Amino acid sequence: MPSVTHDDAPLLADLMPWSVAPPRLGRAWPAAPDVASLKARWDALVKAEGPDREALFGATRARTLHSAVGQLPGQSSGTGRLVRVSGPCAEPVRVQTGPFDEQWLIPDHRLIDAARPELWRVADEHQVFAIEQPPSPDGPALLVASVLPLVPPQPRTPGTKGAPGAKGTSGTKAPFARPGRVHPLYRRPGGLEPNLAPGLLEFLAARLGHSPAPLDVLAWTVAVACRGPRGVTVPLTADPELWSHGTELGHRMLRLMRRDGERPKLPGGRRPYVRAPLPPIPAEPRYDREEETLHLDEGRISPVPPAAWDFGVGGVRVLDQWFGSRITRPEPGTLEAVRPATWPQPWTSDLLELVTILTLLTELRAQQQELELESLIPAADLHKAAVLPPPTTTRHPASVLTHPEEGPEGQFALL
User: Fold this and answer.
1) I want to staple 295 with a disulfide (CB 3.0 to 4.6 A). Which of 81, 88, 268, 286 is the partner?
2) How many CB atoms within 10 Å of residue 6?
3) Rounded to 5 degrees, what angle do the CA atoms 396, 400, 403 make?
4) For the chain, which residues make up each domain, given as ranges?
5) Could you give the CA distance from residue 90 to residue 54 in angstroms, rounded to a whole number?
């Protein structure tokens, strides 16, 4: 990231004042890299009875088979108590379960310890989520996603007596990069009401000579955000040329992180390919730095640049976490153990895309380092213009209920 030591830079928490802790599942089995496993897990749950269903579910203080909760906004799951539920599960939706790792989730409030319904209400095709990342020496301070980010689920592994954990690619339990607070770009569905300090866009327009769009502000933020003792800070510039350069760089980063449009490609000769077919059930990956090759038993993928293999978030290698969620052998008899018997071909395509994204982001991070942040706007100027501090109301979700939401046992919830 840019080596910024400007103590007077405004905080992300002030510029994008509404933030929420990411949803937390409380159990790993409602999320998976493939839809078929999720539907099979649900079927196994509803076929079980009595204590067997309780054991499969994985009760916590927040959720049991007897919990009564409302429907997740915008989803069609049931609201009856799980102890007597039958029938198919709600149609799985895409979520982000780790940095650059999009998987599937059964969007059922009864399965999720802390679902954060306020985030589900504004999650649509227009929304962009900025996610604070854990401190690390060289990792990004901020990532973005177009789908709802979750705290990474940690499956139960053999020998842990049901305790959460995951076997990593080094043969031990891999740590997980737990995301920080989530800042939606918009406070209302449909890309309405930017989650920006009131007056910020007008303030920047006066300084820059043109009116930036909310997505431009986020692009600049992604390009220059850094983590310091006070939290994530966002240096702002009054230099129109620097702003243009920074936002252009940020938009390129946004496209990669959000996976907008077609799959990204590297120039010929640098594109990763499967050089030898992957085995039905790959073991832990092994990386050859000199050959730039990723080995999965007899399977080989190359070229995989060292920078892509080493790319880390929150002190955790991204590819370690990605593989961990797919090759971990969960505790037998658990719902997490219901998974593909062989490595699905779409996972290989996802892996090649991930290597490409990490490679391209590494190149953009080098350009971030070269940004010379000048003509910085002190936070004091934002205070004088009454942009900061933002009103207390902007730190809370907007009232966005446009239709009744089903509460527990089929009753309608009123907000």
Assistant:
1) 286
2) 16
3) 150
4) 12-264+377-413
5) 20
